Amino acid sequence: MNNYHLLHIEFEYGGHKQVITPVLLQDERDTILIDCGYPDFMHLLEAAADKQGIAFESITKLIVTHHDIDHIGSLAEIKRTYPHIKIIAHELDAPYVDGTRRSLRLEQAQSTLNAITDEAKPQAEQLIRSLQSLEPALVDQTVHSNELLPWCGGIEIIHTPGHMPGHISLYLPSSKTLIAADAVVIEQGQLNIANPQFTLDLEEAVRSVQRLLDYDIERIICYHGGLYNGDVKAALQELVQKYTS
C-alpha cells in the first residue's frame, strides 16, 4: 500500500527551469513532509499539497535529508508559520541545519571560488550570498542510521553519506519504496550520482549506492527526477559499476 504523495514543484532558478520532488507521507495520525525547497518556497509547497487534497497545517513532522539550500531553504519560514511541526534531521547534519556549524556547501563554494572561470564566478558568488543568508532552524529530534521510525507504516533511516556527510535516505518497508533525496538523481531516464563534481566525497557516495542494494526496493523517488520507472536493482548495480569499473 502506498502512503506517499509526490509534490511536483516547478520553478526557475539561475535562469533555468527546474523541478524538485518533496514527498508527503500520511497515515491516520501523521502527515510528514520530506525536504522543503529553496527559501520562499512555502507557498509553492502549500499549493502542491493542496493539489493532493492535503492541508499544509495538517503536517506534523518535517524530515530534512541534508542541509543543502534546496532542501532546507524554507525550513525556518515553515517552522515560524506552523510552530507545531516537528523538525527532524540526522545527528551529523543537525548542527548545520540549526546554524551551530557553518554550512559545508558554503565552505566548498568559498574554497573553490578562485579556481573557477571568470564566467562562472557571478553564479558562484550568488550561491555564496544565498548560503550566507540562509536562516537556520532548530532541530527538534535527531535520528541515526538504521533507526526505524514508527510513523506512516514505518520509516527506516538509511545513512547515505557522500553528497554530504549527514545525508540520509528513507526506506518505506510497507511499500518497498526508497525516498533517495540526493543519494541518486534521475538524468535522461537513468539513475546517476547527484552533481558528482560538487559531491563532497564521491567514493563515499558510490558506497552509499552500493549499500542500497541490500534493501528490497521496488521504486525510488529522487528529489531531482521524481519517481524512477525501471528495474531499480539493475539500475543501482549499473550505477555502481559505472563509478567502480
From TrEMBL:
Name of this chain's protein: MBL fold metallo-hydrolase
Function of the molecule: Counteracts the endogenous Pycsar antiviral defense system. Phosphodiesterase that enables metal-dependent hydrolysis of host cyclic nucleotide Pycsar defense signals such as cCMP and cUMP.
GO MF, one annotated term: hydrolase activity
Keyword Hydrolase: yes
Highest taxon, organism lineage: Bacteria
Keyword Hydrolase attached: yes
Metallo-beta-lactamase domain location: 19-224
Catalytic activity: 3',5'-cyclic CMP + H2O = CMP + H(+); 3',5'-cyclic UMP + H2O = UMP + H(+)
InterPro entries (UniProt xref): Metallo-B-lactamas, NDM-1-like, RibonucZ/Hydroxyglut_hydro
One of the Pfam families matching this protein, by short name: Lactamase_B
Record PANTHER family: METALLO-BETA-LACTAMASE DOMAIN-CONTAINING, METALLO-BETA-LACTAMASE SUPERFAMILY PROTEIN
